[in-house]
From TrEMBL:
Residues 9-78 form the Increased DNA methylation 1 C-terminal domain. This is Increased DNA methylation 1 C-terminal domain-containing protein. One of its GO terms (cellular component) is nucleus. It comes from the Eukaryota. GO terms for biological process: positive regulation of transcription by RNA polymerase II.
Length: 86
């Protein structure tokens, strides 16, 4: 796997990009996570997540065990092939 540092991206964004490459190579379709209200804007504005609808939550909960915490919102993001090389 070849990982190239992309200028103007923070270390966390670079790390998260590497994780997305790994998830894509494993044929993962979606990422789901609980986000604290204080951090929600980072996940949505910087990393491309969106708030999960109640319908989507029910779909996921039929097939997977989801962990939620008080004061969090469930977010999701489709895993896509990135511009990084594998």
């Amino acid at each position: 796997m070849i990982l190239m540092f992309v200028p103007l991206k923070g270390y966390f964004q670079a790390l998260f990009g590497s994780i997305e490459i790994l998830l894509y190579s494993m044929h993962v379709k979606n990422q789901v996570l609980p986000a604290a209200e204080e951090a929600k804007s980072i996940w949505t504005n910087k990393l491309g997540f969106r708030k999960m609808t109640d319908e989507r939550y029910l779909e996921y909960s039929r097939d997977f065990t989801l962990t939620e915490f008080n004061g969090t919102s469930m977010l999701e993001k489709e895993v896509q092939q990135t511009s990084y090389e594998l």
